[in-house]
Amino acid sequence: MEADPQALVIGVVGPCCAGKSTLVQALLTRGYQARHIAQEHSFAPRMWQVIARPDVLVFLDVSFGVAQQRRWMNWRPVDLEEQQRRLAHARQHCDLYVATDPLGPEAVCERVLNFLAERARHASSRGV
């Protein structure tokens, strides 16, 4: 049987304004071990694996327009494109991808919690 989902290390990656800090705080409040991984600022594609060593990797995504609505930043669409390039490896290897544009913070957290619960049920049914 898999360990308690709250014992897992959950890494959270994504571009600026996707909701990473908000999700990490919500998970920490609920007793999960969550880590915000600032992969979008790194030129090392596998940084998320080395620094955080997550058991579960969550990728939060956001469009340029919604990012600007959430928090004005002095950047251009090309800056988001560069962050997405830096995040490509993490996105390819994430366990859960969430496009956050249409979602509020609670809905994002609920999706992650549902994913973790389903993952635990699946592992339990396999006898892991």
Tell me the series of helices and strands, N- to C-terminal: EHEHEHHHEH
Relative strand content:
5-15%
Question: Radius of gyration from the CA trace?
Answer: 15 Å
Strand order of the largest sheet: 2-1-3-4
What is the total tally of β strands? 4
CATH topology: Rossmann fold
Rough outline = globular
| Content-based structural category | alpha/beta
Number of helices in the DSSP assignment:
6
Summarize the structure.
The protein is an alpha/beta fold. The protein has helices spanning 20-29, 47-51, 64-70, 77-86, 88-93, 105-125, and strands spanning 9-13, 33-36, 56-61, 96-99. The chain contains 6 helices and 4 strands, in the order E-H-E-H-E-H-H-H-E-H.
Structural notes for this entry:
The structure is a single chain. With 128 residues, this protein is of the alpha/beta class. The protein has one domain (5-104, 111-125): P-loop containing nucleotide triphosphate hydrolases (Rossmann fold). Helix content is 46%, strand content 15%. The protein has six helices and four strands, in the order βαβαβαααβα. Helix 1 (20-29) crosses helix 6. The termini are close together.
Blueprint of the fold:
Layout: E1 9-13, H1 20-29, E2 33-36, H2 47-51, E3 56-61, H3 64-70, H4 77-86, H5 88-93, E4 96-99, H6 105-125
Parallel strand pairs: 1-2, 1-3, 3-4
Defining key terms:
single chain; about 130 residues; alpha/beta; Rossmann fold; four-stranded parallel sheet; about 15% strand; globular
